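Much of our argument rests on the idea that a fold can be written as discrete symbols. In the encoding step, the backbone of a single protein was reduced to a row of integers, each denoting a local shape. We regard such an encoding as a compact summary of how the chain folds. The record that follows shows the chain in one-letter code together with its fold in token form:
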Amino acid sequence: MPPAQWYTGIVIQIQDLAPNTRSFTIQIPEVTVFPFIAGQFITFDLPVGEKRLQRWRSYSIASPPRDSNLIELCLVHLDRGLGSTYFFEQVVIGTELKFKKPEGGFVLPDIIDHDLVMICTGTGIAPFRSMIQDIIHHKVNHQNIHLIFGTRHREDILYLDEWHALARDYDWFKFDIALSREIINNDDPYPWSNAIKIHKGYVHPIYIDAYADYRSDIHFYLCGWSKMIDEAVANLFVQMKYPRQQIHYELYG
């Protein structure tokens, strides 16, 4: 097996996305174009311990492939998380980061001839943002896209303005939000469109209700914490009778 290819990136921008979530823009000066496939992740070697198990941390790329040497990450600050604590407490503009070349098979097919239902929680939305922006930027032929996002509070909704713009501009896109700890009322101040709906609770009832009748022309993509994915796979495969080849997932822990 050939040795892993490593890069050195420089943090050039840090932005708050939510109370405990930030985006980090990284430039890779040694290349003009940084190649990867939308949905892939990169593994960092962070100075947070002696053993590789402590030092190596993997994060999905939240930006689409483009003709540049910039990538974006979307990270949440986890309690006792060595990697996220390092990013939030020590990484600043100009920090150098060492990471391996992109990896992972959680990617879309070359020919998208079926509807896509993307189900995620928290920063699990990162690879889907990369995929959707890649589809738009490269004018990829595709079918309908239904993004279902779960989080706790309204202030934790990530990239909301981007999704609102997509729902406004494209009739193939719709976005459902599940808020597990928020009071939902009809006097919502945000200008929700018909393609964006907000729900009280978790993501599971949304796709169960929407896709209860089996369809062969739809694929489900799941990304987030393992508990959510385990439940979603059980719902889709066991309860709703969707075959394994129509269910794809990426675990976050």
Q: What stands out?
A: The longest strand covers residues 6-18. The radius of gyration is 18 Å.
